[in-house]
Structures
1.
Amino acid sequence: MPAPAAGREAGAPLLTVSNVSKVFGGLVTALDGMSLSLGDGDFVSLLGPSGCGKSTALRLMAGLTHPTTGQIRWREGTEPDLGVVFQEPTLAPWSTVFGNVWLPLRLRGISRRGARDEVEAAIASVGLAGFEKAYPRELSGGMKMRVSIARAMVTRPRLLLMDEPFAALDEITRFKLNDDVLALQRQLGCTVVFVTHSVFESVFLSSRIVVMAARPGRVVHDIDNATEVARNESFRTSADYAARCRDVSAALRHAMGEGG
Amino acid sequence: MTDTATPRRAADAPVAIDLDELARMRRRRAERIGAWVLPVIVVALTLLAWDWIVRANEIPHYILPGPGRVGETLVKDWPILSAALLVTLQITFLALFTAVVLGVGLAILFSLSRWIEMSLFPYAVILQVTPIVAIAPLIFIYVDSKIIGLLICAWIVAFFPILSNTTLGLNSADHNLRDLFRIYGATKWQTLRHLQIPSAMPYFLAGLKIAGGLSLIGAVVAEYVAGTGGVGSGLAFRILEAGYRLNIPRMFAALLLIAVTGVVIFGVMSLISHLVLRKWHESAVRRER
């Protein structure tokens, strides 16, 4: 799979969210009229304060809940094909690293032997080669998250959903994992939806930033954040990066002022 | 990519030992020895005190036999007692086995269908809260075989902890993992096999530990109710019989066998639990620090 850097021109969007609302218990509007289209290779951040419905949006895209109104459609002729990384590593404690990464393939009926190459490649791609036989309790928080990412990547999904995956990690580990996620996305060419409440993280990672407001949860800004330069350490320290952060912060403040 | 990717165990690296480490090792060694020696001392002291009380007060053996006499009786009556022990053990283990099979089977059925759970759970509770001694006489009226009757009684007692613990365990799988299984389109059977059963393991094993002791208690209590002796009677009947004949030393010997059996059962269940969970569950993992 080649890596389409800004490949939104390639025909119909991979996933289209049209005017979706989600009301819980007939009373609480978690998400109000969200529209979003995701193209191949997009890296979209959903940025906003807690209660803005960004996790609800992710669960809707994952097919875990149904919209109250509106529609979520995959591209014509495309089966839903996604990987998910939750806020917690969410590993099975009774399984080794290998067993955890094997799980998605195992559920498709692929034997341990048949899955070995792919599973080992996925584990190596997150830098955990040699840890196949370790149990989750033997790993640090960052390493567990890597296993979780390897598990999401092992099926080579078209769409990767990440729900504040690095919120609980220290900054050094987070920077490292940010770099790794970008590298993996380039390698697999998948579309990523990344929920975060960090302006800096969203500006560093994403080609597009969707700023959301709370009560009711809704989209207030859709900021194009494509770059010509590579997203690496020198980008992280550039004046351009700082300026982009300033703009997104202003948009977020505006969103929160509107919402509050 | 080496945020924490250091080797897990540096076996050949030189070990730096400071005073804290030394104190910790000493304390650990003392605790390890103490865990065995202290109970042995307590038991020995108890036996000595028991023996002394019997001798000093010249208590006749048909009221309170000394520990020596109980030991003698255990050896002398071993043919009778061992046969009785075998019967009790048979009933205990058959009851435990049936409780595990039916308890786990029903728990799985419950987890697959809320409707079945709603329909049958009240019966399981009724079975649990009704004292076995109250049901046993009825059971012995309707069931011809005494062994089967005893088995049913012991099973009723041992069944509930397995059922309720396993049901709880099957329902306590991590929510995000459940979502993950849904996203990957796992079947009910796959979810059960790869998510719910492993999640339920610690709960089931805790239930098994309780059920092991309860099946022995059930077997003994049921035999008290069943009463009639003869061939194929267990330890409880031997205690009753010895009581009628004022053979107090044999009562103590039989009681001792029941107690030891209970301790052994508990030990075996704890061992099984440890072996199954040692790789991953907090309860079985030794803290490094």
2.
Amino acid sequence: MRSAESSAAIRSAWAVGLAVSAYGVSFGALSVAAGLDIWQTCVLSLLMFSGGSQFALVGVIASAGASAGPAAIASAALLGTRNGLYALRVAPFIGGPLAKKFLAAHWTIDETTAVSTAQPTIEGQRAGFWWTGAIIYIGWNLTTLAGALIGDLLGDVSRWGLDAAAAAAFLGLLWPRLTQLQPVVVAIAAAVVAAVLTPALPAGIPVLVAALVAVVVGLTNWLGPKPASAGESPS
Amino acid sequence: MTIWQIVILASIAVLALKLVGYIVPPSFVEKPVPARITNLLTVALLSALIAVQTLGLGQSVVLDARVPALVVAAGLFALRVPFILVVIAAAGTAALIRAFA
């Protein structure tokens, strides 16, 4: 029999998992619109399995093609650094053999971290992590395939407004993070830096330069909260 | 580079970063500076990508149907409309403007 804590965690896992899986349709369609084929799109969801990084990779390829490969890889990797930070919070309650830890690492993303760390007991944390991970992994990959097939049928990108959908998708990932003055200022400054540098630098590079805004503000903690509350929780 | 090389290399990089968190000592997480930079890095990259996706056309900056589409998306996110509906609404806004412009 399941404990009450596990049942509560599993309910959260379903709610979050189903909502997030729906994003897969937009990723699949945008990826095909950017010039990747259906197989490449599905491999990204199977192997990379991190929404922000996947959207970033296809976004750079959409604007500059395969010649911007290094910038596309760097954008995806930089957006993936937060997963490493999440792993630090999740690792203590995962445990088990190496293969299990490897699978846990692959499933360490925004949503599994958010659901698991919100549970009060270790049992609930484990249930929350594995259920959220499994539901999103299956759901995200199925909806990615569906989106890729739809995108393949639609053909012309701008006629259907798919280029505008990409910006809206990024905004959806950014929105929950704009809760304090510091991230809002970083977001505005990074957008200005990227837009101003676009005519001057090769595609993909302005985004990487804009990331320096985060490093500078992060090091100085300009406009930041007091040190006691500096450790933010994942959204 | 081919698209396949980009897809595989980037996927390995993102997976490796997840594994790093299981290998480095947990005391790292107690330090506020790396945690703060990582959180702000996500914000800066997403925001820069929005700017480039909305205004960029190759290497030039243009104002077109994507700008009102993004404004619509921001309004809907503020009203807590679900992600997938907002993305569809943004695409529809741009498509409508282009169809009648």
